[in-house]
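User: Continuing from earlier, I have the next pair ready.

Assistant: Great, send them over.

User: Here they are, in order.

Assistant: Folding the first of the pair now:
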Amino acid sequence: MIAVFEKETLLNALIPAMYTVSGKNTNPATEGFHLNCLEEGICKIQTYDNEKGTRTSVECEVEKAGSCVINAQKLLQIIKTMPNGPIKISVDSSYKTVIESGLSHFDIKCLPGSEFPVLPELNSDRGFMFPQYLFKKYINKVLFAIGQNDTRPVFNGAYFEINEEQIIVVACDGNRLAYIENDMSIESKNIDGTRLNLRFIIPGKTLVEILKMVKDTEEEMEIRLTRKYVIFKLGKFVIFSKTIDSEYIDYTRILPKTHNIELTLNTADLRSALERSSLIIEDRLAGSIRSFVKFTIDEVLSVSTQSSNGNVYDEIDINKIKGDDITIGFNCKFLLDALKACDDGEMKLCFNNPLMGVLIEPSESKDGKYKYFVMPIRMNN
């Protein structure tokens, strides 16, 4: 294989593709870029870690068609350090790889293209179009509530409900739940012309990588579904990932429908108070919770915590809509994560009792409405 690339063109393809390169060191082929140079002057570039992958292509000058797998970290670092201009990549029959530009010259080893794993079939008859900026906004609002390596698979992803008039996204890790919905027109790309009615769970790790590629633009991305995979089409890039094949929890039973206590306050004020409390919090010691943030609600909201590091006390002005006084404790990080995802402005906090947690809602929100529910900590008197 012999091909000549423009440095900037090649980098623009390799950098996003790097997001789905395996880092587990279990199969050298999944740790590399699969380059397949065709006589038509196209190089197809693929990555795949057996869970998610990317496909794209770049124009190049192909002197000899062929394919190979080059370690992704090495190739990307080499291309970054090469001088600007044409970069020639040559692979001989022993899979010695020469990368050269100007007077710069690298010799490395690569693998035959045949050792790259076979990608799954990605033929899909179901899909929809969605603005990139909204997808980015919604995922950022629920990402904090996705579990990390939880033994319950559904907690490790975000749940989507899509039809032509509405989108719902939910994430829950067992301690907090994030919910967002928006009534909007969604363009169906179902091949058979049927109406959209999709339900699927995307792993949180995949969403983290997708966020690196979507832009704050009204330009739309195409999202397609197969039985086991979700496929994102962003320009020349195709990113795909396994979905989580499981029934999602009944989130409607978790979100309280009635409340004994309701109040409103300034979002930034509460966020700042929790950030101050987090400076001295000892979250865990020998596996048990040693300190927490305590809310005492009467005429004001008192936020306090104490640990071996010191004490913190804050008071926040509130507008109590209804209810009695209450004292309730929370894991500070869980609550602060939810507050960081909230829009600035006024928010509403809803309680029932010290054992049932808090429902957080914005007083006003554009681009959809969202709710966060955070479970409390049982406090010892």
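And the other member of the pair:
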Amino acid sequence: MNRLELKQVVKQYADKTAVNGVTLNVKEGEIYGLLGANGAGKTTTMRMVLGLIHPDGGNILYNGKPYNTELQQIMGYLPEERGLYPKVKVSEQINYLARLRGMNGKDADQSLKYWLNRFEVPEYYDKKIEELSKGNQQKMGFIAAVVHRPQILILDEAFSGLDPVNVELLKSTVKELRDEGTAILFSTHRMEHVEELCRQITILHRSNTVVQGEIKEIKGRYPREQVFLGTIGSVEGLEQLPGVKKVERNERGYLIHISQVEAAQEILRTAMTQTTVEHFELKEPTLNQIFIREVGESNE
């Protein structure tokens, strides 16, 4: 079931087109990646999904229906710029936000305590936001976005500024919500997070969709241009092989850039005549490499 559908959505500001015909579907229990450099149209798209601004063309459907005010009860949003009041207690403002989204006081408080325990910080219940570190303020923002168990969740740079331990904690929580059926629209510039969490993506560039589909299928459209070679000893003459563009030596072995796939087998044969090969891989392109190829060097 499609929780969220965008059909040829357009947004214009005077003579500037901010979003030009974006179409995508986010299913129940899916994390969908929305990617793009600054100014690509991601934020405008998310604001239209949230009902903060209205599209000038196309349609946005929620569980098959157009936007209405009752949708606030089934949607959650974690913005890149955090918005909790610094001098108000965690419990007071998150419970208030939960009630605004249709929960009664008892259920709101119970849900808040669940999430505080889930993040192993039950003592933050009576603390003011300004008393917490930036990372913990971010976790409180995440709780505010999900306290009412939304069916549709919009995450904009959810992991920015977090240390690796808290990134893993939030990622596991996002996966938990996905497994419970939440539809998640996930925007980030960290491609490794997209590769781990998302199956389907859309990449926007200058208001237009330039790449869309399943990550595995998208990668199949692009040539394999790197070989990793791990050996016991050194290997000579790799640079001279046909199709080899560049050889980089690192602590784990060689990263070899090639212009044609056929060069890979010649690399392997050459290495095996000189030393023991421990690892050989014709690497598929990373999402980051695909992003740079389609959008340019200006990543966020």
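Worth noting for the second one:
Residues 226-284 form a domain with the Alpha-Beta Plaits fold (CATH 3.30.70). The two ends are 32 Å apart (CA to CA).
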